[in-house]
């Protein structure tokens, strides 16, 4: 009944004012009487004595606060929260703004055996400086990874290689629980694939970060919040999964809370195979090239095993302060086989050579992170102090054995062994202080120190067949040990205020960066240090209830790190190498964004226009490697070597528009869609080669969830990424369809879900790359033209079974939080 009342309140809120009544504001805060924990999404209702007057009310935010506009009158006021005893006050005459202060609700012992509510659908909470997507019952990501979750969040896209982009810009910073994390790892794409989807509670999309956040990431910040259950007693759920291609998984998340202690965990183990494929057809126009046409086909057979566990404890010192300690461990063990078949032809299409190159690679990875958080609500007026200490490390080793055979003669051409080791250590100290002044003013200040130390060593040895030497000889040109050390100090101050329907949050952040680079092989060192100010402004105007306009500005930075700076080459194949640039400078970006959100009874519209202008933008150049006489350097097989490397090439202007729609025509049918279109204009040149280009592209997503007869939930997700181009090539459009269905069993204590990812096996990147121009027979021609395709993961089918301990799912609260899209007002 409580949830039905809330549903009525939200539908009638915008009609609850008479033309002659001036709205007044009622506010306060709800907490758990026993622990002092804020009660989020609790109901506050105002029931008039006049039966002709519709009920009014709302819900609390994530901190347990509420601020509700009502018409003057006499009411019965109710404060309600599931499994807690309601507080009711009769005959409350409210004729002016009123603050009820902090109200404590007591657990209802009679309801302790009742359901602990599980959110049924993903909801959005709009704040001044971010959007929060609470991950609900999204069937298409059940049994998936953090990459799958991110790929379903509006404004975010994940390409076929797992690289994450925000509004089409891949320079996005990814946080775990609000901080840089070892869990994201050195290779963000691989790390995100190993974080189970069921461990994620919500995703914060921060396109206009306030001064509180790191300035890193020109596109913005994606903050992954891991689940930390806090229900009373013992609660949890166990998930089993299986699928095709072969995969098995087992995970558990839950907590035990008693008195002042709360113990929680998220633990999962997975075993999975991930087949993939790639191809490239390259034509070389250089007259010195022995092979004019090179056709390459690759097949990936990957076997991955991973363990993810998060163990934490919270101790409530009193109602206003607590300490949370958390340890996270992620282990990965992969065995991959890549079969590379290459056919090489002369200019008359006569076969010069056919080879098969097989790479057996084993990879072990250990990530550990320790975090200690302290929070103290210093008084009842919102004064707050928080402090965090974090330490983490990652150790990764990749061993590979490579053999190459000439298939027409069955002759062994090449034999290689490589060993790459990476050791990363990072530490963080952070302290934040909030000071409200009166009801509508908030000051905040803080400090954050980040330290990162990364050492990468690479060793390659190969057999010299020309001398018939059977020993493996180290390659001095590729072997290297590279150390990257970074220290960032940051301080900030920000000021927020609400004036009637207008709110603003403005701040200034200062960051000092000190970088030291050391190459053991050449005994070379380099040091760079720089500092800058990063102003931010975020404003919001509530046109009327359910309708808001926002405007934001911020300055951001993209720092070169590790691989982008390492000048020693690494290679994905014998003829394709990547080489860092030790002289690479940071990119600074100025961003502005104008947003609008409007809610109706069954329909929500959120839209934004944005512009980013970046100076000293990086571009990755591809060119054929030449010697001192400008002749192409060839491999033993006669293939020209193509080198990729980053340079501060251009000034980039990015202008875009995004639209997100939510429509619920019926209780059993929910439609979510988002559309993002953007134009990228880049102006720059390198070695007399013009890399200026202008490109407009878009991506769109359509999700539908339908409740079928027999209470079967069915969900579809359709993604489309439009064609695009860059300074050296084009990419074709990609369409992907995912399907899923679920059914509750055992009296709603368990759920079975079946899903198909990439139904048509179409998630494949197809592109064309054109090399820099050269002169051949007096004519200007591209040095090479390459058509390629890449599919990291082929179609997969997954079945999951979830069983809930002491949790019985109720749809009411899921719908309650779903129908309220959050606090659109001031957040300090």
TrEMBL record:
Map out region (Disordered) in residue numbers: 809-828
Entry membrane topology: Multi-pass membrane protein
Annotated TonB-dependent receptor plug domain ranges read 144-221
Compartments in which it is found: Cell outer membrane
Ranges where the Outer membrane protein beta-barrel domain occurs: 377-803
What is the annotated signal peptide range for this record? 1-20
Alphabetical UniProt keywords: Cell outer membrane, Membrane, Receptor, Signal, Transmembrane, Transmembrane beta strand, Transport
What is the similarity comment for this entry? Belongs to the TonB-dependent receptor family.
Name of the molecule in the record: Outer membrane receptor protein involved in Fe transport
Species, as recorded: Nonlabens dokdonensis
Q: What is the phylogenetic placement of the source species in the record?
A: Bacteria, Pseudomonadati, Bacteroidota, Flavobacteriia, Flavobacteriales
